[in-house]
Write a structure and sequence with these properties.
The complex is a heterodimer.
Chain A lengths: L21 H20 L6 H26 L7 H16 L9 H23 L5 H20 L1 H4 L5 E2 L14 H23 L2 H11 L1 H6 L4 H27 L1 E2 L6 H14 L4 H17 L7 H15 L3 H13 L2 H11 L9
Antiparallel strand pairs in A: 1-2
Chain B lengths: L8 E10 L2 E11 L4 E5 L6 H9 L6 E6 L2 E2 L5 H7 L1 E3 L12 H13 L3 H5 L7 H12 L14 H14 L4 E5 L7 H16 L4 E5 L3 H7 L2 E6 L2 E6 L1 H5 L2 H8 L6
Parallel strand pairs in B: 3-8, 3-9, 6-7, 7-8
Antiparallel strand pairs in B: 1-2, 1-4, 4-5, 9-10
Classes of the chains: A mainly alpha, B alpha/beta.
Chain lengths: ~350, ~260
C-alpha cells in the first residue's frame, strides 16, 4: 500500500512538448520536402488553364480544412461549408466591386469577410447544435438549401441568377497577382497560414476537447468539456475558414454566382476531406487536390465521369475509411515497428495473471 | 466523524427512479475531504446510479446534492467537473483515437482552468510533468508519451484513469470499481494512488468496489446500499457485523 520504489521501471520517455518521435521527424521532413517541390515545380509544368484549376483546389483545401475541424477533430458531419463560403464570397464581392457604392481595399475586406462568416457561423451553430448527430447533419443540409436559394434569388446583395462580376483581385501594398501563376503563390501563403492555424488547434485544449466530444461524450463531460460550446466553436472556426475560402474564390475568379454554393458542391467538400483523411491536414490537402483535378484528368472518359466517381467513393469507404492519410500512417507504422518491440519486452517481466476479481 | 470537518459532498434525500425501478431511494450520506468512503452493495443496488447523479449525468427526481455546501442540482455535468468533482468509470473511458499524451492532457487542461483561447495562444499547463511522474511512480508503470492508449494493458488503463482524474486537481473523486480486472500488484498500486489522493491531496473519495479487501483496507467509512436504499453506514468493523448487510449479501436464513 505504501509508495513503492520502482527502480526497475523505465521512467517516461520525455514529457516535454518538444519530444518528437522518429515517425514525426520523418513525416515533417517528407511533408516539407514534398510541399517545397510542389510549390517550386508545379507552376513550371502547368499552363494557365490548369493553373486556374490548381488554384481552385488550393481554395477548396481551405474550405475542406474547416470540415476537417468539424468532422475530423470533432466528429460532427456538416455540409454547411458552402453556406459560409457564400457569405465570404458575397461579402468580398459587394464591398470591393463598387456595386453598393463602395470599393474598399481588398485585404481588409477579406479580413472582414472572415469575421462576418465566423459570426454568421456562430449564430447558425448555436441554433443547429440544439440538435445532435444525424439530426444536426440534416439541419445543415437545410441551411445549405436556404443559403443557396438566397444567393440565387436575392438581387440586391447577391445579384440573382446573374451573380456578381467585376470583383477586383487581391492587392498587397499596391501589388496584385497578374496571372494565375502569381495567384498560385498568393494562395500558397493562405494555405500555409490556414494549415498552421488548424494544426495549432490540434495541439491545444480545443483540439483535445473536440477529440473527446468525438470519441467519448461522457468522458468529455466528466473532464469539464462543455460539449455544446465546443461544437459551436468548431463550427465557428470552420465557418471562418470557409469564409476565407469564399472571399479568395471571389477575388480569384472575379465572378461569383450561386452555382458554386449548391448542395452538390457541399458533398464535394465532404468527399475531399474523406478521401485525404479527415483528421489530417496534409491528407485534406491531397484530397482537395485530387478531387478538384480529377474531372480534368478523367476528361477522356468524361461520359462515365460521374459513374467512375461514384464507384470510386464506394471503394474508398470500404478499403480506406481513414483516407489516404490513414493508409500512409499504416505504412509508416509498419516501417517503424522496431520501437514497439522494445516496449513489449518491458511489459512481459510483470506478472500478467489477470487478478483475482 | 469529527465535527470540525465539513463535508465536501453531501447527498440529502436523493431519489431516482427508472420506470418502476427505484435506483436511489432518499439516499443521504456525506463525503469528507481527505477520507476514502466506501460505497458497497450487491449488483444492481444503485451504486453507479448514485455516481451518475453526483457527476450530473442523471438528474435526481427529488432530493438535493450539495458540493461544498452549495446546491449543485442545476449545475451541468461539465461545470461540476470544473468545480472539482472528478470521476473514473467501471470500464475506463479514454479517447481511443488519441495518444496517451492527449488523453492525460485533457485532465491537466481541466486542472489548469485555461480556456480554449488562452491555450491556443500559448498558455501551457505548467508543473504537471513533475506531478505526473510522481503519480506514475505510485501507479507503478510507465509508457511512451506518443503511444496509443490501446497499447496499454487493461489494468494500466484503469490506473491511468485515476491518474488522469488526479491531474485535474479534483476536490472529490468518484472512483467506480478500480480493482475490477486488475492483478494483485495493480490493485496495490490503485490503493496507493487513492491513499495518496486522500492523504496528500486532501481529496474526498467515494469508492465503489466489490473487492472487500480493498474496501476494508482503505475505507474509514462505508455506506451499504441495496435496492437504492442506504441499509447501513459506519466503519468497517460495524459494517462487517451488521445484520442487514449480511442478509443483503448472503440472503436470509429461512430457519431464522
Amino acid at each position: 500500500m505504501s509508495e513503492k520504489n520502482n527502480s526497475n521501471q523505465k521512467i517516461i520517455v520525455d514529457l516535454k512538448d518538444t519530444s518528437i518521435s522518429a515517425i514525426s521527424i520523418f513525416k515533417i521532413v517528407a511533408i516539407t520536402a514534398a510541399f517545397i517541390a510542389f510549390a517550386v515545380y508545379t507552376p513550371k509544368f502547368t499552363n494557365a488553364y490548369s493553373m486556374m484549376i490548381l488554384n481552385i483546389s488550393l481554395i477548396n483545401f481551405i474550405a475542406a480544412l474547416g470540415l476537417s475541424v468539424m468532422l475530423g477533430m470533432g466528429g460532427q458531419l456538416s455540409f454547411a461549408a458552402v453556406s459560409f463560403m457564400g457569405t465570404g464570397a458575397y461579402f468580398v464581392a459587394n464591398l470591393t466591386n463598387g456595386r453598393l457604392g463602395v470599393a474598399w481595399e481588398p485585404v481588409p475586406v477579406l479580413v472582414g469577410a472572415v469575421l462576418f462568416s465566423a459570426v454568421f457561423a456562430y449564430i447558425c451553430g448555436s441554433i443547429l447544435f440544439r440538435l445532435s448527430g444525424t439530426y444536426f447533419t440534416f439541419a445543415t443540409i437545410g441551411l445549405v438549401q436556404v443559403t443557396w436559394s438566397v444567393y440565387l434569388n436575392y438581387r440586391p446583395l447577391c445579384g440573382g441568377p446573374d451573380g456578381v462580376s467585376g470583383i477586383p483581385v487581391i492587392r498587397f501594398f499596391g501589388m496584385s497577382p497578374r496571372d494565375y501563376h502569381d495567384w498560385f503563390y498568393v494562395l500558397l501563403i493562405f494555405v500555409l497560414l490556414a494549415g498552421f492555424l488548424v494544426e495549432r488547434i490540434r495541439r491545444t485544449r480545443l483540439g483535445r476537447s473536440l477529440a473527446s466530444v468525438r470519441d467519448n461524450e461522457i468522458a468529455a463531460q466528466t473532464l469539464g468539456v462543455n460539449i455544446y460550446k465546443t461544437k459551436v466553436i468548431a463550427f465557428t472556426v470552420a465557418g471562418a475558414l470557409s469564409g476565407l475560402a469564399g472571399g479568395l474564390y471571389a477575388m480569384h475568379n472575379q465572378f461569383i454566382s450561386s452555382d458554386i454554393f449548391t448542395f452538390d458542391m457541399a458533398t464535394t467538400y465532404v468527399i475531399m476531406a474523406m478521401l485525404g483523411g479527415v483528421n489530417n491536414t496534409v491528407g485534406v490537402f491531397v484530397g482537395a487536390l485530387l478531387v478538384t483535378m480529377l474531372p480534368e484528368w478523367l476528361r477522356p472518359i468524361q461520359r462515365y465521369l460521374k459513374l467512375t466517381y461514384g464507384v470510386g467513393i464506394i471503394f474508398l469507404m470500404i478499403f480506406m475509411p481513414m483516407g489516404l492519410a490513414g493508409l500512409g500512417n499504416m505504412i509508416l507504422k509498419k516501417f517503424f515497428r522496431r520501437k514497439k518491440g522494445q516496449k513489449e519486452t518491458l511489459l512481459t517481466d510483470e506478472d500478467e495473471t489477470g487478478g483475482e476479481v | 466523524m469529527d465535527a470540525l470537518c465539513k463535508p465536501i459532498l453531501r447527498l440529502d434525500g436523493v431519489s431516482k427512479r427508472f420506470g418502476g425501478v427505484v435506483a436511489a431511494d432518499s439516499t443521504t450520506f456525506s463525503v469528507f475531504p481527505g477520507r476514502v468512503h466506501g460505497l458497497i452493495g450487491p449488483n444492481g443496488a444503485g451504486k453507479s446510479t448514485l455516481m451518475n447523479l453526483i457527476s450530473g449525468i442523471y438528474t435526481p427526481d427529488s432530493g438535493t446534492i450539495y458540493f461544498d455546501e452549495r446546491d449543485i442540482g442545476k449545475v451541468p455535468s461539465h461545470d461540476r467537473a470544473r468545480m472539482g468533482i472528478g470521476r473514473t468509470f467501471q470500464t475506463p473511458r479514454f479517447l481511443q483515437r488519441s495518444n496517451i499524451r492527449d488523453n492525460l492532457l485533457l485532465g491537466a487542461d481541466l486542472g489548469s482552468g485555461y480556456g480554449y483561447a488562452a491555450s491556443y495562444f500559448g498558455k501551457k499547463v505548467t508543473g504537471f510533468e513533475a506531478y505526473l511522474e510522481r503519480l506514475l511512480a505510485i501507479a507503478g508503470f510507465s509508457f511512451a508519451w506518443e503511444d496509443d492508449i490501446s497499447s496499454l494493458p487493461y489494468g494500466q488503463r484503469k490506473l491511468l484513469e485515476i491518474v488522469r482524474s488526479l491531474l485535474s486537481n479534483p476536490r472529490v473523486m468518484l472512483v467506480d470499481e478500480p480493482a475490477a480486472g486488475l492483478n494483485n500488484r495493480e490493485i496495490e498500486n490503485a490503493m496507493a494512488l487513492l491513499d495518496f489522493a486522500a492523504k496528500e491531496k486532501n481529496i474526498g473519495i467515494l469508492l465503489i468496489e466489490h473487492s472487500m479487501d480493498m474496501i476494508m483496507n482503505i475505507c474509514k467509512d462505508i455506506v451499504v446500499i441495496n435496492f437504492g436504499k442506504v441499509i447501513a453506514a459506519g466503519n468497517p468493523a460495524e459494517i462487517q457485523s451488521n445484520e442487514d448487510v449480511i442478509v443483503a449479501y448472503l440472503g436470509r436464513n429461512l430457519d431464522a
